[in-house]
Design brief:
The complex is a heterodimer of chains A (about 280) and B (about 350).
Chain A (H helix, E strand, L loop, with lengths): L1 H40 L2 H4 L14 H9 L2 H32 L6 H11 L9 H10 L6 H26 L2 H9 L4 H12 L1 H17 L2 H6 L8 H6 L9 H26 L11
Helix pairs in contact in A: 1-13, 3-13, 4-7, 4-10, 5-7, 7-10, 8-9, 10-13
Chain B lengths: L2 E10 L2 E11 L4 E5 L6 H9 L6 E6 L2 E2 L10 E4 L11 H10 L5 H15 L14 H13 L5 E5 L7 H18 L2 E6 L2 H7 L2 E6 L2 E6 L1 H6 L4 H6 L6 E8 L4 E3 L4 E3 L2 H7 L4 E6 L4 E4 L7 E10 L4 E7 L2 E7 L10 E6 L5 E4 L9
Parallel strand pairs in B: 3-8, 3-9, 6-7, 7-8
Antiparallel strand pairs in B: 1-2, 1-4, 4-5, 9-10, 11-12, 11-14, 12-13, 14-20, 15-19, 16-17, 16-19, 17-18
Helix pairs in contact in B: 2-3, 2-4, 3-4
Classes of the chains: A mainly alpha (about 280), B alpha+beta (about 350).
Chain lengths: ~280, ~350
């Protein structure tokens, strides 16, 4: 009886601690977002008030107005969307096929493992070391200040991750499934499209989010390869609000809030696919 | 449609999985490839399906050499050990898949799917997903998917091994009946000798990549071609006793016992230095009193099975199993007198393991 009471006491203490930790984690994740949101709605005076104004301030839409109507931030968003979506689609298309081949075929001299390692090794040095050669190449190709420049660079940048992530998902699937499909009369490509890809859809979704986030937030390459309003992306546009004379915190925050929305919506939309377990019941029981 | 292996070799790197396999499976025949794991039976099956390419030799389906032809053009159907049902499709879509990829018209597909579903008694399951099915139901869906297309050959890779014992025996019977009704050539891989004996018209026993014997179950049981086959078929296994022929005394003898042989046996065994005597458990007789030609042994342990009793005996250093009537009751360490059914003795050359015909 006594022991039982002690145990319940102990477990309730543990439960409390669990919630306390969760609250800390949630605050750590959400406070900056809240701060961003409030700054985007605060007048410049309120932004620097001490002590900070957490709730009581007079909201203003001035920063949003400036961002979208004075500066062409809508255009940057469009550029960012095109670049992110196109390069993600390209990286998924090329990377998935490569990953499937590397997962399913063995090459002589263990070449499939070596190639896989070589692919990931291209991400082992800091990206900044490639920036000068890339700049020179894009200049010679007359692609500076164009979207294709960014699309090509981001696709190449994301490919190693796509290959490695998708390869893992493919390797988890039993070979029996595509072999059954091929004996049933399908080509390997048909088996891949009709049987394998639906089963790795959660993996594809996770990989797609990953690529999109990277492209959406990428700053360094975009800064170097594009300078004109027609080609710069959202992060470069935001950074452009740090001017010679002042830092436009309100405008930057307003842009940041808007920039967060698309990724958030996309993540919520594919959340269902992120939950694994679709391939349960495929094999044995 | 017949299936023929001509001098087929399959190597994985330096490992030879199948070594110069020659096998002719007749049209409409039910052939079981039987052997321990790693004997090359599954590899052989996968070579018929086109999932593995032969390193050498030819494989024919009917009169056509299928080497290098991709699986989808071979017109064979395969049932996998794991069933390999497509988890994201319903049962109906699973069964329809082979027809769908062949661009058969919708109405026709529905008709045929419902026909085979009826044949296998899974009409009520058509809307379900594979994960909602029991093992036995999945097995039926896998069969239905193979049957729906009316292929030239069925290939089955240990299709019953994931079922529980009772269901396995039931499905075994149903498979046999199904093959009888469809009359389609079937190649079936298993390591379970009971499945092989009950299902097959002919059994191909493989070991170490080599075909050991290809014959009817009864012939394999009664006249195993070598010691491996003799020991592999039959449960409990055949007893082996190694010894030599003493010509002058007209006896087969070893340390622990000796058997008198007649002139005919002796003449056949002449020239073989060491001989292995094989005797099946049911051909070992046990008596509690000494008789002419019997020899003493000690009871090691007895196993009562209900319809029969296995008596494990120690004959000197060797162990011997006898299958006896269930009423036989023997104390452990009791001395009994053994004799063998002379007409049912098997002889193998001890060095090569090959059968010596008497």
């Amino acid at each position: 009886m006594n022991a039982e009471r002690q145990r319940t006491k102990k477990s309730s203490a543990l439960g409390l601690m669990k919630y306390a930790l969760l609250i800390v984690a949630v605050l750590a994740a959400l406070l900056p977002v809240y701060w961003l949101l409030t700054i985007s709605l605060k007048s410049e005076v309120d932004q620097f008030a001490v002590p900070p104004l957490w709730f009581a301030f007079k909201p203003t839409w001035a920063h949003y107005y400036e961002t979208f109507f004075v500066r062409p931030f809508g255009r940057y968003l469009l550029t960012s969307s095109i670049v992110a979506l196109t390069s993600t689609a390209l990286a998924l298309l090329i990377g998935t096929l490569a990953a499937y081949s590397l997962a399913r075929f063995t090459l002589p001299a263990n070449l499939h493992e070596r190639i896989s390692f070589w692919i990931i090794s291209t991400r082992m040095f800091p990206p900044i070391v490639t920036i000068v050669p890339l700049f020179l190449m894009m200049r010679d190709l007359r692609l500076l200040n164009t979207l294709p420049a960014l699309i090509i660079v981001y696709t190449g940048f994301n490919l190693p991750f796509v290959v490695w992530m998708m390869r893992g998902f493919f390797e988890e699937l039993p070979r029996d499934l595509e072999e059954a499909a091929m004996v049933d009369g399908d080509s390997r490509m048909g088996a891949l499209v009709r049987v394998i890809l639906p089963l790795v859809a959660p993996g594809l979704a996770a990989t797609a989010i990953f690529c999109l986030i990277i492209c959406w937030n990428e700053f360094l390459f975009a800064l170097i390869l594009t300078q004109t309003d027609s080609a710069i992306t959202m992060p470069v546009g935001i950074a452009g609000r740090v001017t010679q004379y002042e830092i436009k915190w309100g405008a930057m925050s307003a842009a940041g809030v808007v920039a967060m929305i698309p990724i958030l919506v996309f993540a919520l939309a594919v959340q269902r696919y992120l939950v694994r377990g679709l391939s349960l019941g495929a094999v044995k029981g | 449609m017949s299936v023929t292996f001509e001098e087929v070799v399959k190597k994985f790197g330096s490992v030879v999985a199948v070594d110069r396999l020659n096998l002719k499976i007749e049209s409409g025949e039910f052939v079981v490839l039987l052997g321990p794991s790693g004997c090359g039976k599954t590899t052989s099956l996968r070579m018929i399906a086109g999932l593995e390419e032969a390193s050498d030799g030819r494989i024919l389906i009917g009169e056509t050499c299928v080497n290098g032809i991709p699986p989808r053009y071979r017109d064979v159907a395969m049932v996998f050990q794991s069933y390999a049902l497509y988890p994201h499709m319903t049962v109906e879509e699973n069964i329809a898949y082979p027809l769908r990829v062949r661009k058969i018209e919708r109405a026709q597909i529905a008709k045929r799917v419902h026909h085979v579903a009826g044949l296998l008694g899974i009409n009520e399951l058509l809307r379900r997903k594979p994960r909602e099915l029991s093992g036995g139901q999945r097995q039926r869906v896998a069969l239905a998917r193979a049957i729906v297309r009316e292929p030239r050959v069925y290939l089955m890779d240990e299709p019953l091994s994931n079922l529980d014992a009772k269901l396995r025996v039931q499905m075994r019977g149903e498979l046999k009946r199904l093959q009888y009704e469809l009359g389609t050539t079937t190649v079936y891989v298993t390591h379970d000798q009971a499945e092989a004996m009950t299902l097959a018209h002919r059994v191909a026993i493989m070991e170490g990549g080599h075909l050991q014997q290809f014959d009817t179950p009864l012939t394999i049981y009664e006249r195993p071609t070598n010691k491996f086959v003799a020991g592999f078929i039959g449960s409990p296994s055949m007893n082996f006793l190694e010894g030599s022929i003493a010509e002058t005394e007209r006896r087969f003898s070893n340390r622990d016992f000796s058997l008198p042989f007649d002139e005919q046996k002796l003449s056949r065994l002449r020239g073989h230095q060491r001989v292995t005597l094989g005797v099946r458990p049911e051909d070992v007789r046990i008596a509690t009193e000494e008789r002419e030609g019997s020899f003493p042994a000690k009871v090691y342990v007895t196993e009562l099975m209900g319809n029969e009793t296995f008596v494990f005996l120690k004959l000197g250093e060797e162990k011997i199993v006898a299958r006896t009537h269930p009423d036989v009751r023997l104390e452990i360490e009791a001395t009994v007198w053994l004799s063998f059914d002379e007409r049912k003795l098997h002889f193998f050359d001890a060095a090569s393991g090959k059968r010596i015909e008497i």
